[in-house]
Amino acid sequence: MTTANPITTTPRPLSSRRAAWHAYLALTTRDLHVLGRNLPALLVQVGLQPLLFTFAFAYVMPSIGSGLGGATSFSTILLPGLIASTLTLQSIMSVTGPLAAELGPGREITDRALAPLPVWALGLQKITSSAVFGLVSTLVVVPIVWLVHAPGNAPRAHIDNWPLLLTTLILSALLASTLGLLLGTAIDAAAFGALLGLLLAAATMLGCVYYPWTALHTIRWVQVLTLANPLVYMSEGLRANLTPSTGHMPTWAYLTALTLGTAALGHLALRRFARRVQT
After folding, report:
1. For residues 266 and 68, what is the distance between their CA atoms, to the nearest angstrom?
2. Number of domains within the chain
3. According to DSSP H, which parts of the chain are helical?
């Protein structure tokens, strides 16, 4: 009687997992290298919109007697909202822009698909790289809001719980990146620019960027409507951690929404990405 050689019949999943992990790190390292090479120009581009908003609302309007913050300076209200909107915009654009080109007629995505990774892992790698870029972009907003304001209208930020703040930032970046991957696979390339711009503008105006969510209690239907906007939970989460005196959504509410939203949108986005790559 002969017996099978266990050396030749036993699968070796460890080596394949190691190869996949190395490929994942290589793709991420490449994306971060490209980010670092273009970082100065990107930071200027990222900072332009927050600078203009801050200059108009936190410097010009208070200087001419038209401040919007009442007892609280508007720069205090604006700080968490601008961080959230910049994080969202840059995380989405950093995944949707390259993805539109890779899924275009040239099918550049095929080159990445040759890596020893499952297709869904390619999508996950795009999400994590875009989340990192989104987090880096927020570093531009803080000094802008902190320095550009009318006399006596400096923002008042207070951080009690650094781990909670970092968790909120990371979840917000991941949620925005998964939303970007989903939009990049769902929107037709021909209408991509116009439709994406419209969606982002609507999300910003109703995303509690320029006002706390609790301030909408006098317009109850609008307050309820905004709960469908992911940017609301990012703005309110950062408001709760940076400027809690302005009023904010309960911690359990925004953390639950950020966590479940990332999981649900991530599942949909990775499925759509896999279908687009394989067709």
Report:
1. 37
2. 1
3. 6-9, 13-37, 39-54, 61-63, 74-102, 109-113, 119-147, 162-186, 192-205, 220-225, 230-242, 251-278
pLDDT at 158: 86
Produce one character per residue of 44-77: b if its CB has 16 or more CB atoms within 10 Å, e if not.
eebbebbbebbeebbbebbeeeebebeebbbbbb
Find all residues with CB under 8 Å of 263, minimum gap 6, and list them.
Answer: none
Would you say residue 7 has pLDDT above 70?
A: no
Pair 184, 95: CB distance under 8 Å: yes
Q: What's the CA gap between 61 and 70, in Å, rounded? A: 12
Contact status, residue 118 vs residue 273, Cβ threshold 8 Å:
no
- The pTM (predicted TM-score) of the whole model is 0.78
What letter represents residue 238's amino acid? L
| Residue 82 maps to a domain | yes
Whole-number average pLDDT of the chain = 79
What is the rounded CA–CA span in Å between residue 148 and residue 51? 8
| Nearest CA among 207, 1, 4, 8 for reference residue 92 | 207
Q: Do the domain assignments include residue 261?
A: yes
Burial (CB < 10 A; 0-12, 13-18, 19+), residue 147, is exposed
Rounded mean pLDDT of 142-151?
Answer: 81
Number of neighbouring beta carbons within 10 Å of residue 115: 18
**Domain extent at residue 151:** 37-278
Answer yes or no: is 11 within a domain: no
Contacts of 55 (CB under 8 A, 6+ apart): 148
